[in-house]
Amino acid sequence: MSALRRRDNDREVALRRLLHRDGLRFRVGLQVPGLRRRTMDIAFTRWHLAVFLDGCFWHGCSVHGTSPRSNSAWWQQKISANQARDRDTDRHLAEIGWRSLRIWEHETLEEARGRVYSALAAQGHSAPHTIAEQSPD
Q1: Could you say which DSSP state residue 66 is in?
Q2: Residue 99 CB coordination number (10 Å)
Q3: Are 28 and 42 in contact (CB under 8 A)?
Q4: For 119-134, what is each residue's pLDDT tens digit?
């Protein structure tokens, strides 16, 4: 488990490249204000939007989350603590005027991209390009 990358994993990098190519600018790994040990995967500071890419196993996805048979009580406690920390982070961000967007590991990059654009639009951002205008790669 220690070999798993917490940051800059393939999925995060792919989404960041896609958004950057669209002309969006953001911060990576920005500390959550007031919570020292928590960071945002992608932060749009101008629009106060925090994006988190959550793994289905580690964050207890109701669709794809699994429960290991070995040491199951410990794993259930670990995943429950992760979920509680996620809720606490979202609550804290809302209290200081930020919006949280949680994207599940099972969502496609295009779905994730669309959700980011929708969240930015809800914050009053007009994107430099619409998704429909993008040329396929």
Answers
A1: -
A2: 17
A3: yes
A4: 999 988 776 554 444 4
